[in-house]
Specification:
heterotrimer; A alpha+beta (263); B mainly alpha (117); C mainly alpha (109); A: alpha+beta; Ubiquitin-like (UB roll); Fumarate Reductase Iron-sulfur Protein, Chain B, domain 2; 2 domains; two-stranded antiparallel sheet; 7 strands; 14% strand; elongated; B: mainly alpha; 3 helical TM bundles of succinate and fumarate reductases; 0% strand
Chain lengths: 263, 117, 109
Amino acid sequence: MQLSQPDQQSLKVRIWRGAGDEGRYETFDVPVLENQTILDVVSYIQQYMDASLTYRFACRVGMCGSCAMMVNGVPRWTCRTHVKKITDKAGSLTIAPLRNLPVIKDLVVDMDVFFDKWVRAEAVHHPTRSIEQGVQPVNEETAERQAANAAIECINCAVCYAACDVVASNPEYLGPAALNRAWSLVNDVRDGGREAILEAVSGKGGCHNCHSQQSCQKYCPNELNPTASIAGLKRETAKFALQNFLTPTKKDKAEKNMKRERV
Amino acid sequence: MKVTGHQRHGLWLAYISHRVSGLALALFLPLHFWVLSLALNDRAALDGFLSWTDFWYVKVAEYGLVFLLSLHFFGGLRLMALEWLPWSARQKTYAATALAAGFAVSTSFFLSATIYG
Amino acid sequence: MITARLYILQRLTALIMAPLVIGHIGVMIYAVQNGLSAAEILGRTQGSIFWALFYGAFALAVAIHAAIGLRAILHEWAGFNSMVLTIVCWGIAIGLAGLGLQAVYSVTG
């Protein structure tokens, strides 16, 4: 990257600085280049103007999701967002850390909550076979496998989590990424935890809190559709609940008896 | 209320209008039920309330109410189709259709209450 | 704050109310022609088992549906939590059902 020349245009960039709940926006004048991504802008500021600016990136080619930030109020991968395409009418840029996650410093957020919810949704593989039994064949043609394949490319960048208003207003809500992953496993023949997953996504923070705003689907850089996955979970959990209601299994009856004895 | 960056898209607007119409209807209902229950003991009061509907601005308010109900109704159908029918890529079309249907129904009510009444 | 059970109830009451809403709007479009009066309305509804059942079902379904819908709003926008949320929403359901059934009785009794 070239250092600014005296006659070059410059861009006003507002960047969030601070830690935790405290902070403020600082403005920098960054030289405009022909092809410039938001990540280029942030890197320029940190390298040439203020070395104390803290931010995350890794691959810088749109594969890892580490560089996700709020750009003019929209969650994006900054390495794949061109400045010219999203500068607002005033010709300025506002860059902030991802919404809905605690801020560690400046543009870096704490992803722990996001990963915890992934686990709480039981969106983890529940193995069934041991190595002696061999690999279970997966039929790619089934509707279930196609549903799983449609949801499987998630790299957990938290853009959808930042875009979701339910995440913002309901702290227990598991969020689109965790639920999307849960759906891919519900449809995976190799996963032995279907019931556990359906129960995990039926509670207070479960899939039924989704109001289908579809911001997750709109902003997912991998073009996934968590809203559709969550709709699938709504159907399966409703059928599951109805089945249990109409034909309680021995396990359900035993659990009910245990609850009565405890009381 | 400011609609910020990530909220500026049609399907988010569909969500917020569904929520706001539901909230408005929920707030209106107790009043609606109370006025109707006047039929039991105070018909004169009921007739008093009903005569307000002769005023044009009350008719406009009624139009608003029927619009809210139609919007919430068609929006709800859209939601249940989204959740229970195979996913369609035409989500924005359905949202627009729900809005249009809401307008159509409430406008026919309004015409019935005014020009054709 | 919406669990699987509440979700099912919400969608079920919505389905029950779908034909009732269509009926209600249709009736209103008819009734509102040439002005409204108590005598005109009650002349059609009093003593009618059909209207009693129609609007009785409507009142009960809407009480449940509105209470669950408000539960989501009160939690997400007003920050109400667990116990308070449950008490308030039960109150809304019972209150709306009570007022609604009273209205139905007043108009069809």
